[in-house]
Amino acid sequence: MAVEGRPALRAGHRTSRTRERKRAVLTYILRRLGAGLLLLAVVTMVTFAIFYVVPRWAGRTTEQLATMYVGRAPTPEAIRATIERLGLDQPVAVQFGEFLRGILFGAEYRFGRETLECAAPCFGYSFQTYQEVFPEILARLPVTASLAIGAGLLWLVGGIAVGVVSAVWKGSLFDRIAMAVALAGVSLPIFFTGLLSLAFLVHAWGLFDTPIYVPLTEAPMAWAEGMVLPWLTLAFLHAAMYARQTRAGMLETLSEDYIRTARAKGLSERKVIFKHALRPTLTPIVTIFGLDLGLVLGGAVLTEQVFSLNGIGRYAVQAITQSDLPVILGVTLFGAFFIVVSNLIVDLFYPLIDPRVRVHG
User: Fold this and answer.
1) Taking a C-beta distance cutoff of 8 angstroms, is the pair 193, 233 a contact?
2) What integer pLDDT is reported at residue 2 of this predicted model?
């Protein structure tokens, strides 16, 4: 009877371990989601403080603060109306409550007898263009998303590949050339490489057409052709950093004792490199990628400005030029949201990338 009961006992142990594993994964996800929501709340408070509280600490009056929202050459009537619309004469706690309520449930702005509703999430209302900020951001999001995702794939795959080959062939001609190019990529600013690529690759040599954004749903090939040069320019900067980071991580990992043990057991060099050495190296790479992708999705300011792409970054530049503070505030919140979400996704992927990371840790 004892022998017959052993398979059932082992099956019970496996079921128990599976349940514990699922419970641990669920706890890990909920803990990370809670941390992400808390971070979003902190970012919202800090953003509110920067735009509403810090100017008062610097000595600005209510009228001067309202002037920042009206724009250039404001009239006294417009300043008074803005103070009433935004409640700038109310206590800070009341202002923050209205600010948060607008994001979660929407807001109302009064223009004399007329009342304008700003649907949730209300990231602000431009009193210069008389447009809600969030719909304007969404209208430009496909441009920025196309730029970020395409360039992100290029710099991630290209940077890791170059870094791995450079680490394996340390000291070779390829390693020296790759690291020299990577150093140039890290050192040169994006507006310089972007203008250089336009001058030579487009106008002088005619290798590329002038970058024009075409929606992906309308013409996929035209979309890719119009974005390839901005992709390459933006990816060149980030891929250089990823190549250097990957090379340094691989060289450190390849010197570990468990790598020598794996080779002594007779494992193929390919399995040693990609299974045992690369996976631990990818952990910091994924962290950096989450931050970089979140920043680019929040608005690739210089790239969009150089290539005249009407994305979120260029929208922010135009708002700064026109002193349109509600738009600047909205873009800041939107960019912070993407950075927090990308970090959350990175945290959830850690256990899959590096087996040394445990979900209960």
Assistant:
1) yes
2) 47
Largest Cα–Cα separation, the chain: 94
Please state, in angstroms and rounded to a whole number, the distance separating the CA atoms of residues 257 and 341: 36
pTM of the complete model:
0.83
Joined tokens for residue 120: 């949730």
Q: How far apart are CA 287 and CA 306, in angstroms?
A: 28
> DSSP class of residue 111?
E
Please answer whether residues 316 and 348 qualify as being in contact, where contact means their C-beta atoms are separated by less than 8 angstroms: no
Contact between 276 and 222 (Cβ < 8 Å): no
| Torsion sign, CA atoms 187, 143, 295, 342 | negative
Neighbours of 206 (CB within 10 A): 9
Backbone angles phi, psi at 60, to 5 degrees: -75, 140
Q: What is the pLDDT of residues 161-203, one digit of tens each?
A: 999 999 999 989 999 999 999 888 888 888 899 999 999 999 9
SS3 label, residue 36: helix
Cβ–Cβ under 8 Å, residues 197 and 177: no
The label of the residue with tokens 């890791």 reads: 160
Q: Taking the CA atoms of the chain, what radius of gyration do you get in angstroms?
A: 26
d(CA 42, CA 52): 15
Q: Enter the tokens of residue 347.
A: 């945290």
Q: CA-to-CA distance for 143 and 238, rounded, in angstroms?
A: 19
Domains of the chain in start order, with CATH, are 132-353 (1.10.3720.10)
What tokens were used for 28? 């890990």
114-118 and 107-111 as β-strands: parallel, antiparallel, unpaired?
Answer: antiparallel
- Kindly list the distances between the CA atom of residue 66 and the CA atoms of 114, 147, 323, 332, in Å, as whole numbers in the listed order: 20, 35, 12, 19
Q: What count of other Cβ atoms lies within 10 Å of the Cβ of residue 79? A: 19
User: What's the pLDDT at 178?
Assistant: 92
Contact residues for 333 (Cβ-Cβ < 8 A; gap 6+):
43, 44, 47, 103, 123
Dihedrals phi, psi of 118, to nearest 5 degrees: -105, 110
Bridge partner list, 126: 131
d(CA 100, CA 125): 14
Interior CA angle at 154 toward 153 and 155, to 5°? 95
